[in-house]
Design a protein that fits this description.
It is built from four helices and seven strands. The chain is α+β, with helices and mostly antiparallel strands and 124 residues long.
Protein backbone atom coordinates (compact mmCIF):
# COMPACT_ATOMS: atom_id res chain seq x y z
CA UNK A 1 0.00 0.00 0.00
CA UNK A 2 2.78 2.41 0.95
CA UNK A 3 4.64 1.75 -2.33
CA UNK A 4 1.44 2.50 -4.33
CA UNK A 5 1.08 5.83 -2.55
CA UNK A 6 4.70 6.74 -3.23
CA UNK A 7 4.33 5.72 -6.89
CA UNK A 8 1.17 7.87 -7.24
CA UNK A 9 2.92 10.88 -5.71
CA UNK A 10 5.95 10.37 -7.95
CA UNK A 11 3.80 10.11 -11.09
CA UNK A 12 1.90 13.27 -10.10
CA UNK A 13 5.17 15.15 -9.58
CA UNK A 14 6.58 14.00 -12.96
CA UNK A 15 3.35 14.92 -14.75
CA UNK A 16 3.08 18.32 -13.02
CA UNK A 17 6.72 19.12 -13.76
CA UNK A 18 6.33 18.21 -17.44
CA UNK A 19 3.16 20.28 -17.79
CA UNK A 20 4.65 23.32 -16.07
CA UNK A 21 7.80 23.05 -18.20
CA UNK A 22 5.74 23.12 -21.42
CA UNK A 23 3.27 25.83 -20.40
CA UNK A 24 5.90 27.97 -18.65
CA UNK A 25 5.43 31.75 -18.88
CA UNK A 26 2.62 32.05 -21.39
CA UNK A 27 2.27 34.75 -24.05
CA UNK A 28 -1.10 36.40 -24.71
CA UNK A 29 -1.95 37.19 -28.34
CA UNK A 30 -5.43 38.46 -29.20
CA UNK A 31 -7.82 35.86 -27.76
CA UNK A 32 -5.31 33.09 -27.07
CA UNK A 33 -2.74 32.25 -24.45
CA UNK A 34 0.28 30.44 -25.90
CA UNK A 35 2.45 27.93 -24.06
CA UNK A 36 6.07 29.03 -23.72
CA UNK A 37 7.49 25.82 -25.19
CA UNK A 38 6.66 23.17 -27.79
CA UNK A 39 5.65 19.65 -26.85
CA UNK A 40 8.90 17.82 -26.02
CA UNK A 41 9.00 15.67 -29.16
CA UNK A 42 7.62 15.72 -32.69
CA UNK A 43 4.29 13.89 -32.70
CA UNK A 44 1.48 12.79 -34.98
CA UNK A 45 -1.57 15.04 -35.29
CA UNK A 46 -3.59 12.65 -33.12
CA UNK A 47 -0.97 12.62 -30.36
CA UNK A 48 -0.51 16.40 -30.57
CA UNK A 49 -4.22 16.91 -29.95
CA UNK A 50 -4.20 14.46 -27.04
CA UNK A 51 -1.01 15.84 -25.44
CA UNK A 52 -2.31 19.42 -25.63
CA UNK A 53 -5.58 18.38 -23.94
CA UNK A 54 -3.58 16.59 -21.23
CA UNK A 55 -1.88 19.88 -20.29
CA UNK A 56 -5.11 20.85 -18.53
CA UNK A 57 -8.48 22.49 -18.98
CA UNK A 58 -8.74 24.42 -22.23
CA UNK A 59 -5.31 23.62 -23.70
CA UNK A 60 -5.47 22.58 -27.37
CA UNK A 61 -3.79 22.84 -30.75
CA UNK A 62 -4.17 26.24 -32.43
CA UNK A 63 -6.40 26.71 -35.47
CA UNK A 64 -4.61 27.44 -38.73
CA UNK A 65 -5.57 31.15 -38.42
CA UNK A 66 -4.19 31.29 -34.87
CA UNK A 67 -1.05 29.50 -35.99
CA UNK A 68 -0.59 32.00 -38.81
CA UNK A 69 -0.80 34.87 -36.26
CA UNK A 70 1.68 33.02 -34.08
CA UNK A 71 4.05 32.83 -37.05
CA UNK A 72 3.69 36.58 -37.63
CA UNK A 73 4.60 37.17 -33.96
CA UNK A 74 7.07 34.30 -33.50
CA UNK A 75 9.94 36.58 -32.45
CA UNK A 76 7.80 38.20 -29.73
CA UNK A 77 6.42 34.86 -28.53
CA UNK A 78 9.80 33.13 -28.64
CA UNK A 79 11.11 29.58 -28.45
CA UNK A 80 9.94 28.53 -31.91
CA UNK A 81 12.25 26.52 -34.13
CA UNK A 82 12.35 26.66 -37.91
CA UNK A 83 10.18 23.63 -38.58
CA UNK A 84 6.54 22.69 -39.14
CA UNK A 85 3.77 23.05 -36.53
CA UNK A 86 0.41 21.29 -36.33
CA UNK A 87 -2.90 23.14 -36.49
CA UNK A 88 -6.10 21.66 -35.11
CA UNK A 89 -7.88 21.95 -38.47
CA UNK A 90 -8.45 18.84 -40.54
CA UNK A 91 -8.21 18.95 -44.31
CA UNK A 92 -9.61 15.43 -44.74
CA UNK A 93 -9.74 12.15 -42.84
CA UNK A 94 -6.02 11.58 -43.57
CA UNK A 95 -4.62 15.16 -43.73
CA UNK A 96 -4.44 18.19 -41.44
CA UNK A 97 -3.20 21.75 -41.86
CA UNK A 98 0.23 22.82 -40.63
CA UNK A 99 2.28 26.02 -40.60
CA UNK A 100 5.81 26.00 -41.99
CA UNK A 101 7.91 28.19 -39.68
CA UNK A 102 10.88 28.57 -42.02
CA UNK A 103 8.72 30.90 -44.11
CA UNK A 104 5.08 31.94 -44.16
CA UNK A 105 3.43 28.88 -45.66
CA UNK A 106 0.33 27.01 -44.61
CA UNK A 107 0.16 23.50 -46.06
CA UNK A 108 -1.39 20.09 -45.51
CA UNK A 109 0.38 16.96 -44.40
CA UNK A 110 -0.50 13.42 -43.37
CA UNK A 111 -1.86 13.21 -39.82
CA UNK A 112 0.50 10.27 -39.21
CA UNK A 113 3.56 12.45 -39.82
CA UNK A 114 5.67 13.57 -36.87
CA UNK A 115 6.03 17.35 -36.51
CA UNK A 116 6.12 19.94 -33.71
CA UNK A 117 3.18 21.33 -31.77
CA UNK A 118 2.62 24.34 -29.50
CA UNK A 119 -0.40 24.39 -27.20
CA UNK A 120 -2.79 27.33 -26.90
CA UNK A 121 -5.75 28.19 -24.70
CA UNK A 122 -8.64 30.55 -25.45
CA UNK A 123 -8.92 33.58 -23.19
CA UNK A 124 -11.75 36.04 -22.76
Amino acid sequence: MKSNTILTILLFFITFTSVSQIIGATYKLDSIEIAQFDLPTEVTWYNAKRECRELGKGWRLPTKDELDKMYDNKDLIGNFINTNYWSSIEYSSEYAWMQVFTHKLIAITLKEGHINARAVKSIK
